[in-house]
Design a protein that fits this description.
380 residues; Rossmann fold; six-stranded parallel sheet; five-stranded parallel sheet; 11 strands; globular
Length: 380
């Protein structure tokens, strides 16, 4: 099967998702992308450019069996502008995030144009795939809430229609690094990893407050603060760079993938204070590398961090407060070598948690989703 894959925001985790699946899929991927910047413009004009390019290639004789798009594309507009034969193909959309429940900055007002674009994209698709059940349910609840506010002619069945064609497939991750398997951890302070985007929705202020509180209680820590920084970073980073300068081992984004994986393998714990997370791939990647997760009991984490029996593992969660996180770090810092208990040697700790997110399993699920969509595509 030959897939036309449209990624209107090809950067970061979006690009890693496409690369990972394309490298392992049994189907041929014909990929069209736009650079991962100016996301509002991508959602407004990406479909126009993609439709023009696809029209030229279709006229030149190229053919596809299905269209696979990511959530930054206005799929309904693309279908309206693409050649009729392409518009008639089965259409699958993958939602990394959405613009209806993604937090806005405190000084911003949500632009519902982008939220409606996500809704019409879902309605224009044969299959809608979310990266977590939490994401799907939050989005559909918000769709119901939004449509109920309309003055008249409400599309009251929109959420139920989208749910009926929805499924959940997580993003994939590479197999964990196996550096020095079986070698016990060397001594020293607890190595704390914070691998998230340097943005307000990850609540860095609470993280650094907890680090300060844990240090005042005597915890011996080292900090690995990575993740991508954008044009503006919350002021908490500048303040923390000074306050905790004596314990910082890494500060800033690690561009090289191999170097980043080595850094993950050197962390003892990975921490989240996020107020927004549709999946949490940075945490999952760190757990795959051997880091012990310390996360709040909210968002997608109770879904993504589960044991072999499918239930959330309570030891991964703190109470969601700064004081609770500080207390957890203090306790873990007392014996860094024993935080995983008897779960196995370095390089294999937490393997049951991440097994379902490894790319071979995820690629198979995505391939099957495309095949089901092709078999059951509705007649237009």
């Amino acid at each position: 099967m030959r897939l036309l894959v449209l990624d209107a925001y090809h950067d970061g985790s979006h690009a890693a998702f496409i690369r990972g699946w394309s490298a392992r899929s049994r189907h041929e991927h014909d990929l069209l992308t736009l650079p991962g910047r100016h996301w509002k413009w991508r959602m407004r004009q990406g479909a126009i450019g993609f439709a023009a390019t696809v029209g030229e290639r279709y006229a030149a004789g190229e053919r596809w069996d299905a269209v696979f798009a990511t959530d930054m594309l206005d799929l309904a507009t693309f279908a309206g502008l693409a050649p009729a034969a392409v518009a008639a193909l089965p259409r699958i959309v993958y939602f990394h995030e959405n613009q209806l429940t993604y937090p806005v900055r405190h000084h911003d007002v949500r632009d519902l144009h982008f939220a409606f674009t996500n809704i019409t994209t879902c309605l224009a698709a044969d299959a809608v795939v979310f990266n977590s059940g939490f994401h799907r349910d939050a989005f559909l609840a918000a769709v119901d809430e939004l449509t109920a506010k309309m003055p008249d002619h409400r599309p009251s069945a929109a959420a139920s229609t989208i749910r009926a064609r929805s499924s959940v497939v997580p993003p994939g991750i590479d197999p964990p690094p196996m550096t020095n398997p079986g070698r016990p951890r060397e001594g020293g302070p607890l190595r704390v990893l914070w691998p998230h985007r340097w943005e307000y929705d990850k609540d860095p202020k609470s993280f650094f407050e907890a680090i300060g509180a844990a240090r005042r209680q005597g915890a011996q820590l080292r900090l690995l603060v990575v993740g991508k920084r954008f044009r503006e970073a919350p002021p908490a980073f500048a303040a923390a760079a000074q306050e905790h300068a004596d314990i910082i081992d890494q500060w800033g984004y690690v561009e090289d993938h191999a170097a980043y994986r080595r850094l993950l393998a050197g962390a003892d714990v990975v921490v989240s204070t996020a107020i927004h997370e549709f999946f949490g791939i940075a945490v999952v990647e760190a757990v795959a590398a051997g880091a012990f997760p310390v996360v709040p009991p909210r968002l997608a984490y109770r879904e993504t961090l589960r044991g072999a029996d499918g239930s959330p593992r309570s030891e991964f969660f703190y109470d969601g407060s700064v004081a609770g996180l500080a207390a957890r770090l203090v306790a873990l810092a007392e014996e860094p070598a024993g935080i995983w208990g008897a779960e196995g040697p370095e390089g294999r700790r937490g393997s049951e948690v991440v097994a379902g997110y490894l790319w071979p399993a995820v690629s198979e699920r995505l391939d099957r989703q495309v095949e089901r969509s092709l078999a059951g595509a509705r007649v237009r």
